[in-house]
Amino acid sequence: HGVFDDVVVPSAPLKVTVKAGDPVGFLGAQDLADEDNYPQIITTDYKAHIELLSLDEHVPDVVANVKGIKTGKQFIKLKLKRPLYLRNGEDEESTFEQMSAITRADAGKIIPRDATYPFTDKNGVTYFQIRPHTWMHQDDVEQLSQHDLAGLDFDCIEAEHTTDFTRTLDERWVIDALKSISSHFDSEKGPASAQAKM
């Protein structure tokens, strides 16, 4: 077992097996304040960093889900500057009223679909509850499966084979990695995200 914020090197090599769905640890956590509610609700967004080094030329195709596999665990990803809705009523008679609030800091957040209590109204439109009393329209989220790794923020950074690691920072893959990290910050999400991108 590792220790948060420490690098732990075992004294002997360990055989580590990670199966789909296993927790692999967190590199960081970001507390997100919901600016539109009072009292303010704070949610924590955890980020994990996983590296896969492979000579298999099909890894980018797997990440891009080129076969369009839609089975398995489902997720929704919140789009930027999309309206939020308030649910009125219960059961089949529920209606949804658009609020003045839009997604900003929450944009890009990925939530397991079953945790959003999907509700389909009498017109066949599905709404997802992203927090108490706050819903989003089906057109304002991206619906993803566990196989949509690119949509789930996995990135492939390809590099030529090398045996010389003395000039790693000069290599193109480092620039690509930094660009990938930078792409997750957006000034449209608010000042904290804009400052992080600088």
Explain this structure.
This protein starts with 27 loop residues before the first strand and ends with a helix. The longest helix is centred in the last third of the chain and has 11 residues. The protein is built from three helices and ten strands. The mean pLDDT is 80. It has 198 residues and is α+β, with helices and mostly antiparallel strands.
Defining key terms:
3-stranded antiparallel β-sheet; 26% strand
Helix-strand blueprint:
Elements: E1 28-33, E2 42-47, H1 59-64, E3 74-78, E4 83-88, E5 95-102, E6 110-112, E7 119-120, E8 126-131, E9 134-137, E10 141-145, H2 172-182, H3 191-197
Antiparallel strand pairs: 1-2, 3-6, 3-10, 4-5, 7-8, 8-9
What is the compact description of this entry?
With 198 residues, the protein is an alpha+beta fold.
